[in-house]
Amino acid sequence: MKQYTGKCVYKGIVMGPLFVLKKADIQVKRVKVEDREAEKKRVEEGIEKSVEQLQVLYERALKEMGESSASLFETHQMMYDELQDAIFEIIDNESVNAEFAVAQAGDNQAEVFASMDDEYFKARAADVKDVSNRLIRNLYGIEDMNNIPEPSIIVAEDLTPSETVQMDKAKILAFVTLKGSANSHTSILARMMNIPALISVPVELEALKSGTMAIVDGESGSLILEPDEASSEAAKKRIAGEAEKKALLDSLKGQENVTLSGKHIDIFANIGNVNDLGYVKENDAGGIGLFRSEFLYLGREDYPTEEEQFAAYKKVLQFMAGKKVVIRTCDIGADKQVDYFHLAHEENPALGYRAIRICLTRPEMFRTQLRALLRASVYGNLSIMYPMIISVDEVRRIKKMVEEEAKVLKEKEIPCSIPEQGIMIETPASVMISDELAQEVDFFSVGTNDLTQYTLAIDRQNASLDEFLDTHHPAILRMIRMAADSAHKYGKWIGICGELGADPELTEEFLSMGIDELSVSPSMVLKLRKKVREIP
Amino acid sequence: MRSFNYVVKDEVGIHARPAGILAKEVKNYADSKITIRKGDKEAEAKKLMAVMGLGVKCGDEVTVTVDGGDEDAVFEKVKTFFEENF
To answer: How far is A143 from chain B (nearest CA, A)?
Structure first.
């Protein structure tokens, strides 16, 4: 038995075999071959295997996300047909090994897309790469992460979104990474999936073997390899206890969020990506209270186009089929940086050029997003939310832009509608003038993370200030109450979408303030429902 | 050989998904050669990446040609398919 301690980012306890992801650094070598037909046969077999893998992914995506997301994998399957012709040509002409020919053919086709002058088609170069890399991996016989044989504890250096999207979620018991941060993709995913995750665990990846029995204990943050009998028994008992709790929560699906005295509150989900939609459904959230649109801007080299944004928003709205979807406009800046925004270095970015301030000074980018939202609005129940508001004037300027863009679209006879518009309450200024703001907007949503840091003047990233950070500080709670009173005075609704919204110790107080909606991580929806249903 | 001109009305143009649907559709007419031309670029309709490589956007005009096989019947079907999908 060996034990390692890391940092727990999501609690829980599991026991199962390890699935160790070693990053195979694929270096494709050019090798001269004599038997060209044998290489072609290898390509055919590799393609057959790749198509089979994609079929599994297709069916999984179809079930979890619906037809429009799944069709990507179908498209990938079809690409092999054409790629095969190009690969055979290269093998015939150059007498090279299958792997090299695949890499070459993939690069050639990717180059065609990369050189096109349309952002959408440019981005397809990545699809071609994905398709040819899968084939190369299969030719080299490298373990595929979409082929986890049994429910396992995933151990990796770190995980990227494109890696985790391929994994069969039903076969993931826990995540253990050697690197990673509390805000990394792994942590967010663990929270979504409601499974334990440890980061910064000091194990040697090369020394681990897939199949080794292990326990991940989120309470103590430990990874136990080859546990002895006593540890196994103790873990089994706790696992059984947790399963019982989970069954209890599952029985709350389809139930209302209503207190014993009949008071109702909406419990919605926060998500940051179209891929998270499955968790919204799985956890029976009543809507999406915060959809962070930043994912459209992050991880790319240029601004997303109106069409790309429109397609993403439309998909979310259609998926939610009439349930409320609150999309927050671009909140770049501070801790979320994007190269192509070319933001100047700031001494104090949290108080700097970010969110709505960028949008208002770079109207073209903002108007593009607004047009995409107005067009998507006809496909469901949309609300648009603006971040970092400090004045009535800002709201009026935004509303004017919205009306202008709606007019432009209508003149072009493009279907659109102006949905509900609201603001984030995350600056002390917005709380102090919330009575004026309430007359301008349709709703408020309190962003407690920023509101806390601005109100208490404590940088939330600075761990050495933890002893001063009281997340239940009366100043914060009074601020929320003040904003709630202002909203209700003018007949508007108010929600909470920051971390505080998921704190069960405050649920009763929020209900007493008359908060209309809590938007939380999908895995918290049922826990809060349980809490609400126990309140007198 | 018969051909028709078509102005793409789908707001996203012929991107990956529509090109995939098209490739699937024309596989039903394996005896006919169906090509799409935009400007001086041409692609066989059954070739997904080649069609995407044309970069057809909303408002672009393409020429679709059907050659061989049960030409007239396929021509009508392909034409209807374009009108319904793009």
So the answer is: 28
* CATH number for the domain harbouring residue B12: 3.30.1340.10
Beta carbons of A320 and A380 less than 8 angstroms apart = yes
Please check whether residue A128 touches B, CB under 8 A. yes
- Looking at the predicted complex, does its ipTM rise above 0.85? no
Tell me whether A84 touches chain B (CB under 8 Å). no
**How many domains does chain B fold into?**
1
- Asked whether the beta carbons of residue A78 and residue B52 sit closer than 8 angstroms, the reply is no
Can you list the domains of chain A with their CATH numbers? Answer: 2-22+150-161+170-235 (3.50.30.10), 36-140 (1.10.274.10), 266-534 (3.20.20.60)
Residue A216 CA, distance from chain mean position? 24
Active-site residue, from B2, B15, B57, B79 = B15
Q: List chain B residues with CB under 8 Å of A81.
A: 47-48
Task: Dump pLDDT digits (tens) for A492-527.
Answer: 999 999 889 999 999 999 999 999 999 999 989 999
Task: Give contacts of B17 with chain A, Cβ < 8 Å.
Answer: 68, 71-72, 75
Relative orientation angle of helices A392-411 and A363-376, to the nearest 10 degrees: 60
The order of strands in the sheet holding B2-7 is B2-7, B61-67, B33-38, B41-44
Selecting from A75, A81, A307 the residue whose C-beta is nearest the C-beta of B16 gives: A75
Q: What is the pLDDT of residues A25-69, one digit of tens each?
A: 567 889 999 999 999 999 999 999 999 888 888 887 777 666 766
Domain limits for position B68: 2-85
User: B63 pairs with which residues across the strands?
Assistant: B5, B37
Contacts with B53 from chain A: Cβ below 8 Å: 112-113, 116, 121
pTM: 0.62
Vertex A524: Cα angle to A518 and A527 (nearest 5): 95
A473 is catalytic: no
